[in-house]
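Person: I have long wanted to understand how a fold can be written as tokens. Underneath my words sits a plain record pairing an amino acid chain with its backbone structure tokens. Those tokens are not coordinates but codes from a learned vocabulary of shapes. I should like you to check that the lines agree and flag anything odd. The protein I mean follows directly.
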Amino acid sequence: MFKWIKRIIKLTILLIVLLPVILLVVMYKGYSAPLEDFKAHPNLSFTTIASNKLDTFLADDTAQTFDFVLTSSEANAALKAMYASNNLDFGKTDTNIDINKRKYAMEFGSGNGGFKGVTVKFDETGLSLEAGIDAGFSGIYYQTTLYLDLDVKIEQVTINDEIQTQYKLQIKNIKFGNMPILWMYDLADWIVGRFNEDGLNGLIQNAVSGFGNYDLKTKSIWLNSKDLKNLISDEDSDNRAMIEALLGFIDEEELLLSGFGENQGGIALALGKMRSSKTPYQTTNEISNENELEDMFQTQLTSLLLSSLGGGSTLNYDMHEDAFNQLVAYYIGDSMDMTQSFDFEDYEYTLETLPLYANFINNKIHFTIIMKLYNTANPTDVFQTDFTLLTTPSISTNKKDLIFSVDSINIGDETTVTNDKVSTILALVGDNEIIVGNKIVLKDFMDNFSNQAMSVQSVTVHGKYLRFVVEPTAANQQAFEDLQDAIDLALQTVLLDPTYSGILDAYQNDPDNSEDILDAFNELSEAEQVAFYNSLYTTLGTEVDLGGLLP
């Protein structure tokens, strides 16, 4: 009996003595850096890869995605540029260079071994990483590796009824040398759980709660859009609204895609959904000062006089789409210009915004900002998108401000942003005094129309015109009636001039259709429009007191 006990004790002691040796044997594993990858892609960095990929995307006007996807060979070379940045001789094969400089990316002192590099391999679900080290002295080194096998997932999740993008890493395997150690996490969790009710899983979760999430049971680490937002921007940061808008838009349209496959890995951005074929608006004239602004308003007053054709209790100031765009250019100018440049190492790219313009479509005003992205050195290869705000015009309650309420936003030719995201997308413009919530507000704009004798009651879109409905006060009712009585005869007199034959044709076709007559008027040159207004104003002035009717 005692003999067996002694044998068990001896065996136990032997196991205790041999266990470290056994572990060292199992964990012993050599490592060779991917020298062929270094040779195939010398001086390659992740920013160079990104620049090359972006140039490829810009050169193809049919590309649906910007793919920051690279091969395992490219990834290994780019990683080397990071971890061996202080040892430019690492990985070289020139025997004239010190062997330790060639062998180790980083040395552990003098003659004590060092860090031998990292090898990455991509597959359909993610990637694996293996790093090698030598440690020892006097030419005797112990070699081992650390191996990680990871699944990478990018997917849409709903958290508290909010759609977010989730970026997840799941650990499938961890090994030191040839010894798997992932099972030790479960053992450690069980042991810690005996002393702490949260267990190891809870302790790690609390530690990462400020920037992400962790689940020991699934061996997963993940970030949601909200976590990423908090990680890269403080709540009181100046760029917080823009960060929220950008990430919110990526979530809403599912723009970020996984790019992992056999021997390749990365992400893709579905920018093709945002591609635009729009062209800038070309106005017939440009307003450069207050005098020219006054001239433009005066020319458009022709519509006010013509609107008296056919009777009615109000007058219409109809501003043509072209004149409105002249007005937009004058009032807004460069205040919504977001043009900026950014660098990828030695390569500069420009994100250019073209001037805001408007189209009158289906009784709404479509405000469009065209944006172009290009390599500054090669501006002919361009990715173009646009943000088009579909708005409904109105007047503020105090009758002073012109307001455009944004109902929805079209991005490029194919994408529409829902109403609940309008304010978020508008935040991409940044701080701007004319944007208030989901509205564009032109302060005191209505002062151009109103006076003590008349007021603007409403504003709507009619075809290619923005119509301001103007109502004379009771004191000017007689002048208004005189205008209605005199307009036909005055118009017939003015239209004797052959210059206005187009207007005459429209008038003879339907004398009460002021919109067709106004269309013909807007076919005239600017000088002809001024002459027509002056002639009509002078002819009417002999019969009507126009001073109280015109703003």
Notes: Residues 163 and 272 are 21 Å apart (CA to CA). The first strand starts at residue 66 and ends at 71. The chain has a mean pLDDT of 82.
